[in-house]
Every structure is written in C-alpha cells, then in structure tokens.
Amino acid sequence: MPKWSRRTLIEIAFATGVCVFAGLGFTYKMSEFAVTIVKDDVEGFGAVAVATYLIGMVPLAFLMLWAVFTGRFRDLEATNRRIFELDAEIERGDYRA
C-alpha cells in the first residue's frame, strides 16, 4: 500500500463525506418518492423527473468508475507538462510535426 500524504487522506475523507451526505439525501428523496407512489397522493408526481435523473446519472457513475479503475486520473498534469515541452521545442526550433 502506498504511503499517502496527510493532504491526500484529508481529500479522500472529504470526498467520502460528500458522497455519503449526497447519498443519504438521495436515499431520503427516493424513499419519499416511493411512499408517495404507494399512497397515490399525487399519482407519482415526480416519476418522469426521477427516471430522467437515473437514466442520466447511472451512465455517468459507470463512466467515472471506469476512469478511476483504469487509472485515467493518475497524472492529470501530464498534458500540461507536454504542452510546455512542445512550446520549448518550438522556441528552440527542434519541433518536428
């Protein structure tokens, strides 16, 4: 296991807290929605809104998990460094397209 810095641990804890908080809010709203449908209060007032949300968010969640597990977020600054390297090559006249 890699040794993580204090900042990394704080960032992970913060991200986990945000996800847990958001998940609890989402769970509460979904249970409230389910109770409303069962009671026939307003004939499923938000069925379309909830379905649209789920249809939009599920693929994004899977895309995010795929990116994390395949290492797409490991070195986010690599592109920036490459741009500066190319700029330096152009300034020196060594750049070949």
Task: Describe this structure as you would to a colleague.
It is a single chain. The protein is an all-alpha fold and about 100 residues long. It folds into 2 domains: about 1-40; about 45-95, no CATH class. It contains 3 helices and no strands. The protein has helices at about 5-40, 45-70, 80-90. The longest helix is centred in the first third of the chain and has 34 residues, at about 5-40. The protein starts with 5 loop residues before the first helix and ends in a 5-residue tail after the last helix.
Pick out its properties.
97 residues; 0% strand; 2 domains; elongated; mainly alpha
Low-confidence stretches: none
| Count of distinct strands | 0
Tally the helices.
3
Q: Rough shape? A: elongated
Number of domains: 2
> Strand content of the residues, in percent?
under 5%
Helix residue percentage: over 70%
Structural class: mainly alpha
From the alpha carbons, calculate the radius of gyration and give it in angstroms: 23 Å
Task: Give a short account of the largest sheet.
Answer: none
What sequence of helices (H) and strands (E) makes up the elements?
Answer: HHH
If you average the pLDDT, what whole number results?
A: 81
How far is the N terminus from the C terminus? Answer: 41 Å
